[in-house]
Amino acid sequence: RGQMEAAAGRGLDLAGPLRDLLPPVDFCCAYGSTLTHARPDGTSMVDYILGVADPLQWHSENLARNPTHYSSWMARRGPEAVTWLADRVGVGVYFNPFVEWGDKRIKYGVVAMKDLATDILTWDQFYLSGRLQKPVRVLVDNWDIRMVNTVNLKMAAAASLLLLPKEFTEHDLYAKICSLSYMGDIRMLFAEDKYKVKKIVDGSFQPFQLMYRPLIQDYISEGILKMSDYRQQKAFKQDCGVSATNELFSSLPRMIQRRLQGRFTSNSTDIPTRALVPSKEVAAASVRTALRRRVMVSSARQAACGLLASGGLVAARYLGKKMSKALSTRYL
């Protein structure tokens, strides 16, 4: 049970009150800076992912219960507009940011359970799947999501090993895993803290260990990794041969394997179960290109969804907060 509860015990015991605030959900986790910083900024939002069986029904009930959580123009248009915007413009997630709740400010994103599970398994959007590769605190557990996320963690570890050099530290591995979902993210150009990845890993090193050490042990048992001394730290040396590279590459989502095999289309049923790559460099290039393109598209779509959902005012406020934080780190 440690994998998706790795960030527990940091003072965010909100499960009961959150259930009182919102309609029932099938899955809920908290993520973000409030989990990774020992002393989060008093203005920081607590971020949640809410998985629900039927977003249309859920938003209908939530609009009746909490209409002020939505922008006035989205509240007037109703739940059909909310779900249409999430699915047609965004990547299936609808966020309500800057929700005042007691002495806290929260942001929650609502997604259909089937869409959440699909993204975790396939990386077709590589949006919520990237968040669940990092430490989160599960408040409403779901066995199916827990199980599919074990696949997500293995794919994240495999992709990161392909992108890392022959020797690296444990911190390097977690930093690479953490960086996957930011590759190509348009927010990283101007609206994110440039030290974000380092801060997440430094603030959550032990939770990362709980999530990924079983996989590391598996790779050591398989001979893909060996323990070594590197930069005077306990570190790893990986097998960069063709056989080990293909073992890692074959465990990645098909959307990455298709990038290597351009002759296959997204609707093809003839994609081999094991794609062969001639070298680690070729595999790494395929991973890098596929993730950058996917993240760029998903982050742009979700940004557009946020702008339309808020009518611009709330999104401008959110963007201003992000840019202020980014600028404060870029000139240090």
TrEMBL record:
It is a peripheral membrane protein. Keywords: Lipid biosynthesis, Lipid metabolism, Magnesium, Membrane, Mitochondrion, Mitochondrion inner membrane, Nucleotidyltransferase, Phospholipid biosynthesis, Phospholipid metabolism, Transferase. It is an enzyme of class 2 (transferase). InterPro entries: Tam41. Its main location: mitochondrion. It comes from Aegilops tauschii subsp. strangulata (Goatgrass). It is found in: Mitochondrion inner membrane. One of its GO terms (molecular function) is phosphatidate cytidylyltransferase activity. GO terms for cellular component: mitochondrial inner membrane. Its EC number is 2.7.7.41. Pathway: Phospholipid metabolism; CDP-diacylglycerol biosynthesis; CDP-diacylglycerol from sn-glycerol 3-phosphate: step 3/3; Lipid metabolism. Its cofactor is Mg(2+). This is Phosphatidate cytidylyltransferase, mitochondrial. Belongs to the TAM41 family. GO terms for biological process: cardiolipin biosynthetic process; CDP-diacylglycerol biosynthetic process.
